[in-house]
Design brief:
236 residues, mainly alpha, 2 domains, 12 helices, 75% helix
Amino acid sequence: MPITTTKSAFWAGVRDGAPFVFVAGPFALLFGVLATEAGLNVFEVMTFSLAVIAGAAQFTALQVMENDAPTVIVILSALAVNLRVAMYSAALTPYLGRAPLWQRIFAAYLLVDQSYALSHAKFEAEPELGVPQRMAYYFGTCLLVMIVWFGMSYLGAAVGTQLPQDLPLDFALPIAFLSMVAPMVRTLPHLIAAVVAVVVGLLAVPVPYSLGLIIAGAAGMMAGAQAELMLKGRTP
């Protein structure tokens, strides 16, 4: 169905974003459970989800918190994981940069992998869309995912408070990270970045306050970027 109005653009975004609830739901549920296992109450879990809205950053911060790192290290670790959002913002600016300020603020708050990927692909495929239609589509892609993310975070936190304290759930956090990272390793630079980050992370385990995580992430990003530059240099 062609997009002709802001209303049709919004509902097109809702339809395109609907399949992502099957990814966001389980992760939000797991986060809620693990956060309560780490000592957060339901109010703190929901404040965390409402303030951050970033699965990878939330899981990272949770892992660092469990290691009794200072607050500044927790914040820096979450920000390091979420650096990709700055690139998402730069990529969407040519399409949404002329929207009203309040819309851009709200869009920045809702910017996640799914909203970026769907919107950027749509805007490139249909350059004739106006700014109001683009923004309507963008917000549409966020609607169901955000409802599910907040709802399942609450459910996970509520369930987590009822679980026995000695229930062994430590294994779930590494598995969650693997399931998020594995689909992202699609090219040789991605693989190099992942391998370097893992090796440096293991070597940096003795670094206090989980700073090894930030060191490993920086090393992985630099290695991946260098690998991509080298591969492009070889392309005839």
